[in-house]
């Protein structure tokens, strides 16, 4: 029945997207390496990287990026897990709540930063509420360079608020793969909800938790607009430095060095991801 | 109070608490953006708005570059949808219908691109686009956004075509349709709602994208690029109105694609 043409049809259908992605990903990756490793006068050089590592903001950017990662990712996992377990209990109206929880999925990190700026700015709603409640006598300045803890907390809250939705969807998908019998069996043996969650659900959810963890880690390297919106240049991060060196200082070589660093971190995390999950498990499931 | 009632109170209580956490920034930005310009620095502000005015929004809309940047954002998003669906729908269809050699490899590629920081690549791409005469050009931004959206389009359309029974297509073929005709007349109409969802999510990706849009343009800004470039200098009211403008579509768009949410991130 199958004609020869039919045999090649799937490849013909895939070719446009594979070709396009190759053009837009592989070529710029080489271009990035060229920009970062080739000197102005030609020839291999490490001067751009030396300049990057030696830059006053580099160690801060590196520290801040990692710090944000360490603070944000666990918070997101806990929040998303709470949301996912609730939704998965299929109470009446759970679809409506899933919709609400998923809304930040369509918010950019820039918009999220501005939304929370209205909360954390000096005469914003957090200070107003605290003052109205009589907790403080005058506004606290959260977003000043002198208040590192304030800036950090604001960014952690804004970014956790925004990107929890992605983790939520990954975890719900993972929960849906767990047969309902498991929950019922645990009920039968008298496990209460908390013990059931810890001993039955979490181990079965491990692959989803791992992929959520690694996806969020990779995205954390790209964090920048939420930081710019809340802290301006007071809190350098790696992706922000790449942007500043390109758009502000017009130095595409140094910007490319940052890009290569970020790409390297991403590739490393992706390899870990595929390794940990195993290729079979990482297959896209429908 | 029996255990069931307690249980339900607990569930709804926490569900509502989490919903408030998600929704409260929307409320605050809406109140801020509709506060009269002169009252933005009032302190302490009441949590319930006392004065409503559109003059902050008006100031934003009338500010230099805002209207053109919104138009640019819309143009880029529409181009991204056109490119993305043209490239991605066939791939999604192939994944849904065929078992072929290299299928798994392709799925890994889709998975890897979904996480790949394509925005970062706009730095080297900007140099290439400069040589091609595409720098500060909306087409360049649309191409990068297409690469970002493509894996999601493939996943969503793949899921959509799996749900459309292939037996219907085969029936059409035995009744005299060509393969292409069967796709066009049977599978495509049935898949339309799903394809619309893919288009909406593509719009969201493009409408929100900041990094590539800022790097690849200089004067032809999209809305997020304009707002980002002005962060250091623009007044608070401008930022609030811009934030509201960028964030509000999310509430509508996620509602429209709520049935397809699991296709976007559900598959690892």
Task: Please sum up the structure shown.
The complex is a heterodimer of chains A (286) and B (268). Chain A has 286 residues and is mainly alpha-helical.
In DSSP terms, counting alpha (H) and pi (I) runs of 4 or more, how many helices of chain B? Answer: 12
**Poorly predicted tracts of residues of chain B:** none
Count of separate structural domains of chain A? 1
Average pLDDT of chain B, to the nearest integer? Answer: 89
The string of secondary-structure elements of chain A, in order, is HHHHHHHHHHHHHH
CATH superfamily of the largest domain in chain B: MetI-like
The share of residues in helices of chain B is over 70%
The total tally of domains of chain B equals: 2
The outline of chain B comes out as: globular
Largest sheet of chain A: none
Give the total of beta strands of chain B. 0
The largest contact between protein chains, plus residue counts on each side, is:
A-B, 106 and 105 residues
Write down the Rg of chain A.
Answer: 23 Å
Q: Structural class per helix/strand content of chain A?
A: mainly alpha
Radius of gyration over C-alpha positions of chain B, nearest whole angstrom: 23 Å
User: What is the number of E strands of chain A?
Assistant: 0
State the CATH class of chain A: Mainly Alpha
Span of the ends, CA to CA of chain A: 28 Å
Beta-strand content estimate of chain A: under 5%
CATH class of the largest domain in chain B: Mainly Alpha
Broad shape of chain A = flat
Describe this structure in words.
The complex is a heterodimer of chains A (286) and B (268). With 286 residues, chain A is mainly α. Chain A is built from 14 helices and no strands. With 268 residues, chain B is mainly alpha-helical. Chain B folds into two domains: 1-62, no CATH class; 64-265, MetI-like fold, CATH 1.10.3720.10. Helix content of chain B is 74%, strand content 0%. Chain B is built from twelve helices and no strands.
């Amino acid at each position: 029945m199958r004609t020869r043409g039919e045999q090649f049809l799937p490849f013909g259908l895939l070719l446009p997207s594979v070709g396009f992605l190759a053009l837009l990903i592989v070529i710029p990756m080489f271009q990035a390496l060229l920009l970062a490793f080739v000197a102005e006068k030609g020839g291999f050089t490490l001067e751009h990287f030396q300049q990057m590592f030696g830059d006053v903001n580099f160690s801060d950017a590196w520290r801040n990026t990692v710090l944000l990662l360490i603070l944000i990712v666990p918070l997101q996992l806990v929040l998303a897990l709470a949301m996912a377990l609730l939704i998965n209990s299929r109470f009446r109206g759970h679809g409506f709540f899933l919709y609400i929880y998923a809304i930040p999925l369509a918010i950019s990190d820039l918009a999220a930063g501005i939304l929370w700026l209205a909360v954390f700015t000096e005469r914003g709603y957090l200070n107003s509420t605290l003052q109205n409640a009589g907790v403080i006598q005058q506004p606290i300045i959260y977003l000043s360079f002198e208040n590192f803890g304030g800036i950090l907390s604001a960014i952690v809250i804004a970014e956790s608020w925004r990107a929890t939705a992605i983790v939520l969807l990954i975890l719900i998908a993972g929960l849906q793969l767990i047969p309902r019998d498991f929950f019922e069996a645990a009920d039968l043996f008298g496990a209460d909800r908390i013990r059931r969650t810890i001993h039955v659900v979490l181990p079965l959810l491990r692959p989803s938790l791992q992929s959520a963890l690694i996806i969020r880690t990779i995205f954390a390297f790209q964090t920048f607009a939420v930081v710019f919106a809340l802290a301006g240049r007071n809190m350098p991060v790696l992706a922000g430095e790449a942007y500043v060196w390109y758009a502000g200082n017009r130095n595409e070589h140094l910007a490319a060095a940052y890009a290569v660093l970020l790409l390297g971190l991403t590739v490393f995390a992706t390899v870990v991801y595929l390794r940990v999950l195993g290729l079979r498990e990482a297959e896209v499931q429908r | 109070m029996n255990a069931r009632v307690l249980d339900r109170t607990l569930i709804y209580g926490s569900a509502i608490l989490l919903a408030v956490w998600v929704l409260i920034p929307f409320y605050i930005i809406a109140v801020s953006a509709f506060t009269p310009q002169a009252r933005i620095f009032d302190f302490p502000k009441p949590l319930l708005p006392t004065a409503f005015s559109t003059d902050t929004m008006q100031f934003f809309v009338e500010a230099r570059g805002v209207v053109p940047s919104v138009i640019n954002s819309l143009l880029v998003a529409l181009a991204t949808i056109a490119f993305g669906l043209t490239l991605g729908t066939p791939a999604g269809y192939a994944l849904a219908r065929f078992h072929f050699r290299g299928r798994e490899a392709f799925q890994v590629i889709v998975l890897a691109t979904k996480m790949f920081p394509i925005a970062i690549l706009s730095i080297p791409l900007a140099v290439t686009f400069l040589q091609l005469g595409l720098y500060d050009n909306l087409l360049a931004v649309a191409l990068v956004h297409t690469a970002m959206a493509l894996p999601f389009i493939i996943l969503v359309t793949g899921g959509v075509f799996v749900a459309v029974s292939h037996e219907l297509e085969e029936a059409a073929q035995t009744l005299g349709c060509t393969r292409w005709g069967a796709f066009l007349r049977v599978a495509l109409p049935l898949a339309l709602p799903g394809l619309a969802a893919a288009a909406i999510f593509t719009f969201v990706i493009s409408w929100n994208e900041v990094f590539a849009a800022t790097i690849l343009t200089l004067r032809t800004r999209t809305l997020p690029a304009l707002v980002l470039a002005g962060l250091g200098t623009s007044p608070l009211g401008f930022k609030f109105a811009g934030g509201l403008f960028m964030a509000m579509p999310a509430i509508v768009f996620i509602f429209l694609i709520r049935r397809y949410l699991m296709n976007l991130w559900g598959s690892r």
